[in-house]
Input
Amino acid sequence: MKPFTQALLDPVDSLFVCIDIQERLLPVMARKSEVVKNTNTLLQGAQILGSKILVTEQYPKGLGATDSSIVFTRIESFDSRDMQSQTPQCVLKEKSTFSIFGDEAITSCIAQTACKNLVIFGIESHVCILQSVLHARMLNFNVWVVQDALSSRSDANHHNAISLMATQGAKITNTESVLFGSMLDSKDPHFKAISALVK
Output
């Protein structure tokens, strides 16, 4: 038997998707402090690992922009000439559809990255997250749902959505598992920075 030579997640082949953590939605979410903390850890971790990031906003005219507690640096679009680089890239897209795959611009943006793995987190678990995850599975993406960076107004709705996503093949995970799962071992050049991030 040979040892594994690849991490669970290839950072270059993984797109981190932060869905709709907005000014008028976040205050009414259950466990909102935990969601903010873990979301920022994921965003910083993705930057350290060199993964690309997509942030979405549901009808920001009515629901506000991404909450100011969420920290990221925006670029206008992913540079197709730079798809294989380790340069952190974060694109912000607005939408009116619940699923990210109901929006043509977002779907095109995801396709442009050519990433096979989607790491999904945000709000609300039982609406936009659920629909996005189910559509992603229909499209044969490997989907990692970060349970401790998700929320709904109701914990019951949150847990129901988690159960349903799991039955459809989504991998239900947590912030630290995603970040450490993106490295094979403690010799990885990003290990110290990731370890410091989660302390």
In short: The first helix runs from residue 32 to 49. The two ends are 35 Å apart (CA to CA).
